């Protein structure tokens, strides 16, 4: 990879300024260390720019797996309950099979936006309940359908309020019980979705509802799930698959134009790999300067701030300090102060 400003190479190979070999590693931290060197930062300052390299591009959410059963044994349950909680649940059985009814309500929250769903009545057998793999699959499919209808690629209600594309249920050997990792709708959002989280919650049927749905067989329901690779919640956030390189002017005019051979700044990758330039429609003082209650501009990498936990954006349009501002001066009369307080001296 090469970066030139005014024809001067900015990246440093360790021995000289020029094209840097990133290598074949998928480790983003290693790639950052390769590109963001002390020598590079110093050279960037010399030519009048500030350069940063950071994680945040093309983020994905962790997958969600709904368990067919859970036990109190270490590693044999998901995130909804701890080992001790399952050991004590419902009389201390220690091993519980997934069981849900049409009265159980599940909530999927992605990046602060939520949908709720119940298992489809058509999929329920017997008196209104599902167990094991059938229960786990029904939950996953119900949440998939609810998310896609509201926030997904084809969502009709609030599509423009989420960065995240359609949910897709994938099949395992046992059942279709996994909501695959959600991807960004558009890579143009840059790092704004990076770090947002995904969560599941379960509002259980009451004892009376569970009894009614199962013909008196049970008075409780149970569901468990794992988000990401571990039982811990520390891996429940979106992770980046690519890096973002930002170049910001310090000296006015040094990067007036961008493009190979056509401007004062060029950046390129060898081997046929292309770079995607992020952009924004945001200006300092326009109607599209902030997100709204109906649109977060999910395909724009501008400095909108974030409704949720994501970053503030990656791109600013080139403009003067007071562009778009109107300065109003108002004249007035001088105010005279009069006092009627007097004193006498000796």
Quickly describe the structure.
This protein has 346 residues and is of the alpha+beta class. The chain folds into two domains: 2-47 and 241-268, no CATH class; 64-235, no CATH class. It has helices at 28-35, 38-46, 83-88, 132-150, 207-213, and strands spanning 2-5, 8-9, 49-57, 64-66, 69-71, 95-97, 99-101, 105-110, 113-117, 129-131, 169-170, 178-179, 198-203, 225-227, 242-249, 265-268.
Total strands: 16
Structural class: alpha+beta
| Poorly predicted runs of 5 or more residues | 259-263, 325-329, 334-339
Beta-strand residue fraction? 15-25%
Overall helicity = 10-25%
**What strand line-up does the widest sheet have?**
11-12-4-14
How many domains? The number is 2
The geometry reads as: elongated
| Count of helical regions | 5
Gap between N and C termini: 89 Å
The major pleated sheet works out as: 4 strands, antiparallel
Order of helices and strands: EEHHEEEHEEEEEHEEEHEEE
Oligomer: single chain
- Round the Cα radius of gyration to an integer and report it: 29 Å
Q: What's the average pLDDT?
A: 85
């Amino acid at each position: 990879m090469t970066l030139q400003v005014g024809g001067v190479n900015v990246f440093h190979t360790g021995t000289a300024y020029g094209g840097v070999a990133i290598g074949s590693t998928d480790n983003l931290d290693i790639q950052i260390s390769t590109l963001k060197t002390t020598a590079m930062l110093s050279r960037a300052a010399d030519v009048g720019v500030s350069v940063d390299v950071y994680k945040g591009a093309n983020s994905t959410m962790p997958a969600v797996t709904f368990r067919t059963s859970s036990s109190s044994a270490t590693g044999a349950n998901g995130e909804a309950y701890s080992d001790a909680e399952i050991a004590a649940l419902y009389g201390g059985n220690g091993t519980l099979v997934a069981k849900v009814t049409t009265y159980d309500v599940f909530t999927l929250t992605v990046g602060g936006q939520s949908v709720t769903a119940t298992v489809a009545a058509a999929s329920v057998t017997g008196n209104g309940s599902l167990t094991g793999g059938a229960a786990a699959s029904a939950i996953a499919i119900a949440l998939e359908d609810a998310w896609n209808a509201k926030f997904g690629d084809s969502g009709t209600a609030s599509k423009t309020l989420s960065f995240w594309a359609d949910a897709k249920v994938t099949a395992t050997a046992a059942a279709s019980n996994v909501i695959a990792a959600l991807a960004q709708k558009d890579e143009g959002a840059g790092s704004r979705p990076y770090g947002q989280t995904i969560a599941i919650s379960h509002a259980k049927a009451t004892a009376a509802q569970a009894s009614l749905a199962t013909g008196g067989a049970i008075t409780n329901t149970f569901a468990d799930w794992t988000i990401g690779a571990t039982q811990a919640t520390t891996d429940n956030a979106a992770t980046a698959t690519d890096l973002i390189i930002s170049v910001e002017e310090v000296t006015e005019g040094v990067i007036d134009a961008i493009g190979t051979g056509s401007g004062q700044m060029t950046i390129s990758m060898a081997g046929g790999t292309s770079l995607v330039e992020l952009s924004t429609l945001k200006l300092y003082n326009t109607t599209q300067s902030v997100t709204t209650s109906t649109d977060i501009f999910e395909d724009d990498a501008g400095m909108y701030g974030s409704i949720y936990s994501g970053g503030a954006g990656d791109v600013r349009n080139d403009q003067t300090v007071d562009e778009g501002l109107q300065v109003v001066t108002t004249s007035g009369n001088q105010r005279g102060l009069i006092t009627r307080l007097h004193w006498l001296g000796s």
